[in-house]
Amino acid sequence: MNEVVIITEAAAFQIKDMMKEHEEEAAYLRVSVKGGGCSGLSYGMGFEHEVADEDTLLEQHGIKIVVSKDDGAILNGTKIDYKQSMMGGGFTIDNPNAIANCGCGSSFRTATNTGTPEEC
Q: 67-76, pLDDT tens digit by residue?
Protein backbone atom coordinates (compact mmCIF):
# COMPACT_ATOMS: atom_id res chain seq x y z
CA MET A 1 0.00 0.00 0.00
CA ASN A 2 1.31 3.44 -0.90
CA GLU A 3 1.76 6.03 1.81
CA VAL A 4 -0.27 9.20 1.43
CA VAL A 5 2.81 11.27 2.30
CA ILE A 6 6.43 10.09 2.36
CA ILE A 7 8.92 12.03 4.48
CA THR A 8 12.61 11.47 3.78
CA GLU A 9 15.12 11.03 6.56
CA ALA A 10 16.57 14.51 5.84
CA ALA A 11 13.12 16.11 6.14
CA ALA A 12 12.38 14.15 9.32
CA PHE A 13 15.64 15.36 10.89
CA GLN A 14 14.73 18.98 10.11
CA ILE A 15 11.13 18.55 11.37
CA LYS A 16 12.38 17.01 14.63
CA ASP A 17 14.73 19.97 15.09
CA MET A 18 11.82 22.37 14.54
CA MET A 19 9.63 20.43 16.97
CA LYS A 20 12.32 20.62 19.64
CA GLU A 21 12.98 24.32 19.00
CA HIS A 22 9.27 25.17 19.36
CA GLU A 23 8.69 22.69 22.24
CA GLU A 24 6.31 20.66 20.06
CA GLU A 25 7.89 17.20 20.48
CA ALA A 26 4.49 15.69 21.38
CA ALA A 27 2.72 17.25 18.40
CA TYR A 28 1.60 15.72 15.14
CA LEU A 29 2.81 17.10 11.82
CA ARG A 30 -0.21 18.10 9.72
CA VAL A 31 0.36 18.09 5.98
CA SER A 32 -2.46 19.85 4.14
CA VAL A 33 -3.66 21.43 0.92
CA LYS A 34 -5.46 24.75 0.65
CA GLY A 35 -6.71 26.90 -2.20
CA GLY A 36 -4.46 29.69 -3.45
CA GLY A 37 -1.09 30.28 -5.01
CA CYS A 38 -0.33 30.90 -8.66
CA SER A 39 -1.49 27.46 -9.81
CA GLY A 40 -4.57 27.14 -7.57
CA LEU A 41 -3.51 24.91 -4.65
CA SER A 42 -0.84 25.36 -1.97
CA TYR A 43 0.78 23.01 0.51
CA GLY A 44 0.66 23.53 4.25
CA MET A 45 2.65 21.99 7.10
CA GLY A 46 2.24 22.72 10.78
CA PHE A 47 2.10 21.22 14.24
CA GLU A 48 -1.17 20.00 15.70
CA HIS A 49 -2.27 18.29 18.92
CA GLU A 50 -5.60 16.78 17.85
CA VAL A 51 -6.45 14.05 15.35
CA ALA A 52 -9.91 14.34 13.80
CA ASP A 53 -12.10 11.39 12.78
CA GLU A 54 -11.58 12.27 9.11
CA ASP A 55 -7.76 12.22 9.44
CA THR A 56 -5.37 9.55 8.25
CA LEU A 57 -2.59 8.92 10.79
CA LEU A 58 0.88 7.88 9.63
CA GLU A 59 4.22 7.50 11.38
CA GLN A 60 7.59 7.81 9.65
CA HIS A 61 11.07 8.27 11.13
CA GLY A 62 9.48 8.75 14.57
CA ILE A 63 7.18 11.58 13.40
CA LYS A 64 3.41 11.22 13.69
CA ILE A 65 1.80 12.68 10.56
CA VAL A 66 -1.86 13.56 10.04
CA VAL A 67 -3.56 14.22 6.71
CA SER A 68 -7.28 14.83 6.24
CA LYS A 69 -8.97 12.26 4.03
CA ASP A 70 -9.93 15.03 1.55
CA ASP A 71 -6.32 16.21 1.27
CA GLY A 72 -5.10 12.60 1.13
CA ALA A 73 -6.63 12.12 -2.32
CA ILE A 74 -4.67 15.13 -3.61
CA LEU A 75 -1.44 14.28 -1.76
CA ASN A 76 -1.36 10.51 -2.36
CA GLY A 77 2.28 9.48 -2.91
CA THR A 78 3.71 12.97 -2.23
CA LYS A 79 7.36 12.98 -1.13
CA ILE A 80 8.62 15.67 1.25
CA ASP A 81 12.38 16.17 1.37
CA TYR A 82 14.75 18.76 2.81
CA LYS A 83 17.58 20.12 0.66
CA GLN A 84 20.51 22.22 1.83
CA SER A 85 22.39 24.44 -0.63
CA MET A 86 24.74 27.41 -0.66
CA MET A 87 21.66 29.68 -0.58
CA GLY A 88 20.21 27.99 2.51
CA GLY A 89 17.84 25.11 3.03
CA GLY A 90 14.22 24.34 2.48
CA PHE A 91 11.59 21.65 2.11
CA THR A 92 10.88 20.29 -1.35
CA ILE A 93 7.58 18.64 -2.23
CA ASP A 94 7.21 16.18 -5.10
CA ASN A 95 3.54 15.44 -5.76
CA PRO A 96 2.98 12.83 -8.50
CA ASN A 97 -0.63 14.06 -8.83
CA ALA A 98 0.35 17.63 -9.79
CA ILE A 99 -0.09 18.40 -13.49
CA ALA A 100 1.08 22.03 -13.20
CA ASN A 101 3.42 23.72 -10.74
CA CYS A 102 4.23 27.34 -10.06
CA GLY A 103 7.85 28.45 -10.46
CA CYS A 104 8.15 28.81 -6.68
CA GLY A 105 7.33 25.10 -6.27
CA SER A 106 4.74 25.60 -3.54
CA SER A 107 1.68 26.00 -5.75
CA PHE A 108 0.18 23.35 -8.01
CA ARG A 109 -2.99 21.87 -9.47
CA THR A 110 -4.14 18.35 -10.22
CA ALA A 111 -6.20 16.96 -13.07
CA THR A 112 -9.28 16.86 -10.82
CA ASN A 113 -8.70 19.90 -8.59
CA THR A 114 -7.71 23.32 -9.94
CA GLY A 115 -8.15 25.12 -6.61
CA THR A 116 -8.42 28.92 -6.57
CA PRO A 117 -5.51 30.52 -8.47
CA GLU A 118 -4.28 33.93 -7.32
CA GLU A 119 -2.14 36.57 -8.99
CA CYS A 120 1.57 36.15 -8.27
A: 999 999 899 9
